[in-house]
Structures are given as C-alpha cells and as structure tokens.
C-alpha cells in the first residue's frame, strides 16, 4: 500500500519515541493501529460495494442483451409464421379452385342414358361388374 522501507520505518519510530516519550508511545501506537484498521476496513467495504455494483451493472447489461435477442427471435418467428400462413392459404386457395373446376367439369359432363347417374356404392353388385 505505502512504499515505506525498513530504514524509513525505523526513523519514524525513533522520532516518535523522542517526541512522545516512552510513556505515551504505546498508546499512540495502539491509536495509530486502530485508525489503520478502520481505514483498511473502510477501504475493503468501499471496494466490495464497488465490485457488487459493477457485477449488478454487468448482469443488467447481459439481461438487456438477452431480452433484445429474444425480441429479435420472436419477431423473426412471427415473420416466418406469417409467411408460412400466407403460403398455406395460397395452397388452400389453389386446391379450392382445382376442386371447383373438377366439380364444374363433373356437373357439365352430359349424362349418358346407359351410365348410372350416381357412382355405384362399394360392396353393391353393380360395383363388382367388369
């Protein structure tokens, strides 16, 4: 944290011993130690709070990215569904037109006297004739 070497620390101790004297030096050392501990605790508290906020911001950003991706996927799926639905409707319309054309063709066909008006039913004697 601080770039203090052994020689500098020894010089500070000698100056403190001379200024404070041997009676007050232990109290001053305890007081300084207390303030250093409090400063460290405060530093770690601020550091952990900052890390939590950064993690929360990162999580929030990831969640927004995921929501954007989900909305994009939903829009793409809705578009594909709409295309499939319109294609299916087109196929149904074409099949309906073909069915109407076949009905008209059958209805317009002249009835012959020797041909039955209705097709024979399955299982009847007429359907077995060659």
TrEMBL record:
Subunit structure, as described in the record: The Tat system comprises two distinct complexes: a TatABC complex, containing multiple copies of TatA, TatB and TatC subunits, and a separate TatA complex, containing only TatA subunits. Substrates initially bind to the TatABC complex, which probably triggers association of the separate TatA complex to form the active translocon.
Keyword Methyltransferase: no
Compartments reported by the entry: Cell membrane; Membrane
Superkingdom as given in the UniProt entry: Bacteria
Pfam family, one: TatA_B_E
Membrane topology of the entry: Single-pass membrane protein
Biased composition (Basic and acidic residues): 100-111
InterPro entries for this protein: TatA/B/E (IPR003369), TatB (IPR018448)
Ranges where the record places region Disordered: 81-130
Classification via PANTHER family: SEC-INDEPENDENT PROTEIN TRANSLOCASE PROTEIN TATA, CHLOROPLASTIC
Lineage, highest ranks first: Bacteria, Pseudomonadati, Pseudomonadota, Gammaproteobacteria, Lysobacterales
Protein name as catalogued: Sec-independent protein translocase protein TatB
Function comment: Part of the twin-arginine translocation (Tat) system that transports large folded proteins containing a characteristic twin-arginine motif in their signal peptide across membranes. Together with TatC, TatB is part of a receptor directly interacting with Tat signal peptides. TatB may form an oligomeric binding site that transiently accommodates folded Tat precursor proteins before their translocation.
Keyword Transmembrane helix (UniProt): yes
Organism: Pseudoxanthomonas daejeonensis
Family: Belongs to the TatB family.
Keywords per UniProt: Cell membrane, Membrane, Protein transport, Translocation, Transmembrane, Transmembrane helix, Transport
Principal location class: membrane
């Amino acid at each position: 944290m601080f770039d203090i070497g052994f020689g500098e620390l020894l010089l500070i101790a000698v100056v403190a011993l001379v200024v404070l004297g041997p009676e007050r030096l232990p109290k001053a050392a305890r007081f300084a130690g207390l303030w250093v501990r409090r400063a460290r605790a405060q530093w770690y508290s601020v550091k952990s709070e900052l890390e939590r906020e950064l993690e929360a911001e990162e999580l929030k950003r990831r969640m927004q990215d995921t929501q954007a991706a989900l909305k994009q996927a939903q829009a793409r799926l809705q578009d594909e569904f709409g295309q499939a639905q319109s294609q299916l409707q087109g196929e149904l319309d074409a099949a309906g037109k073909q069915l109407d054309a076949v009905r008209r063709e059958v209805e317009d066909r002249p009835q012959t006297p020797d041909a039955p008006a209705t097709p024979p039913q399955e299982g009847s004697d007429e359907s077995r004739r060659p």
